[in-house]
Every structure is written in structure tokens, then in C-alpha cells.
Amino acid sequence: MSLRVDVCTEDDLAVLLAGETSRHLAHHHRERFAVQAQGSGHYLLAWRDGVNVGRASLTAQSKYAPVRERWPGCAEVNALAAFPQGQGTGTALLRLADSLARADGHQRIGLAVDPDDPGPRRLYERLGYRLWDGGPVVDEWVELLDDGGSRPHADPSDYLSKPLRENTAA
Ligand SMILES: CC(C)(COP(=O)(O)OP(=O)(O)OC[C@H]1O[C@@H](n2cnc3c(N)ncnc32)[C@H](O)[C@@H]1OP(=O)(O)O)[C@@H](O)C(=O)NCCC(=O)NCCS
Predict the structure, then answer these.
(1) pLDDT-derived band of residue 166, with 50, 70 and 90 as boundaries?
(2) Ligand 1 centroid distance, CA of 147 (Å)
(3) Where does the N-acetyltransferase domain start and stop, copy by copy (predicted)?
(4) pLDDT of residue 170 exceeding 90
(5) Which residues, including other chains, have CB under 8 Å from residue 144's CB and lie 6 or more apart?
(6) Which residues line ligand 1 (CB under 6 A)?
(7) Whose CA is nearest to atom 43 of ligand 1?
(8) Pocket test for ligand 1, best of 25, 91, 122, 125 (most atoms within 8 A of CB)
(9) Shortest CA distance to 127 belongs to which of 150, 160, 104, 159?
(10) CATH number of the domain at 3-163, please?
(11) Could you say which of 62, 100, 134, 165 is the most buried, measured as most Cβ atoms within 10 Å of its Cβ?
């Protein structure tokens, strides 16, 4: 089974929405595709034999104010997920994020990580990401519940980043 990673097309979005039972995820598929359509990012998808096996959003700016202040041009990866895990999907999505961010002219890329979950962090460090010295960031997001309600979250996170070009400070 060969892995294909690419940006989301309108046809891909239709496939995602047709198979999506979660209101929360359906909202995010639409939202990330809209960000891409506005030219402010890319929605990256991974496929094996026509089945969606992973995703990540790549945005032109960080969602965290302290990161934007320090590195206004820092691209950011959010919502990375692979299913099943451990088959190289996360690695392939992150490599595609690097190359798209470079092609868009970004000199740095970053992401937030759960400080209590060492698995993803190992992968990010293997790909060159390092903890910034700006302290924790708070990942604020709203979960849309299938009963129509919503639940706010505020997760303290570590911020990792890496330069995309040699000898530059983004
Ligand atoms: C994190 C995630 C996207 C990585 O994608 P993946 O396709 O599983 O990763 P790959 O197969 O490309 O690489 C495997 C590497 O991921 C890391 N890893 C990620 N999660 C891990 C876990 N739970 N246990 C062990 N290693 C893990 C390891 O470094 C592993 O490499 P190793 O086996 O040499 O130690 C995926 O595991 C996932 O969806 N996790 C749940 C959601 C999540 O935590 N997202 C990240 C939010 S910051």
C-alpha cells in the first residue's frame, strides 16, 4: 500500500465530509479548506488506497501571540494526526509541511506539543524541531459536541520550532 500525501482538493474535501460522523471534525475539515482557499495555509492529507489515513494543517502564521511577536513569519503545523500510527504517515506529512512552508518563503516552522506526551515529541525532535526558550504557550480551542453544544479547552503546551534555511533567524 503506497502512501500519498498532498494538499486537500475540493474532491478530497467531499470524500472527507462524506465519511465524517463527527460534527467537530467536519467543521474543521471545512475550516481548514477555507483557510487554504484564502491563501493563508494548506490542508495536508495522507491517503492509502483512497482511504484518508492522516491530516495536518499548515498555517502561514502561528496561532500563539507570543510566537507571532517573536517570529512573525513562522509557519505552523496544527492538528497533526495519523491513523493508524507508526507507519510513517506523520513523518511524510511533516516533510510535506516543511517543503510547502519553504516554497511559500517561510524561514521557520513550529508546532505546539503536549508536555505530558513524549511520543509525538520524539518524532518532532527527530525531524529537527527544538523547544523554544519563550516558555509554555496555551492552546485554546473549542470542541464542538455532537449534541450541538461546545466545550472550551485551554491546554498548556510546549512550543517547538526549527529554521527552514541555514543561518537565518526568521
Ligand atoms: C503523533 C503522530 C501524528 C505521529 O504520526 P505517525 O504516523 O504515528 O508517526 P511515524 O510513523 O511517521 O513516526 C513514528 C514516530 O512517532 C513517534 N511517536 C508518536 N507517537 C508515539 C507513540 N504514542 N508511541 C511511540 N512513539 C510515538 C515516535 O518518535 C515514532 O518513532 P520511533 O518508533 O522511531 O520512536 C501520530 O502518532 C498520532 O496521530 N498521534 C495521536 C495524535 C497526536 O498526538 N497528534 C500530535 C499532537 S502534538
Answers:
(1) low
(2) 31
(3) 3-165
(4) no
(5) 23, 24, 27, 150
(6) 80-82, 85-91, 113-114, 119-120, 122-123, 126
(7) 81
(8) 122
(9) 160
(10) 3.40.630.30
(11) 62
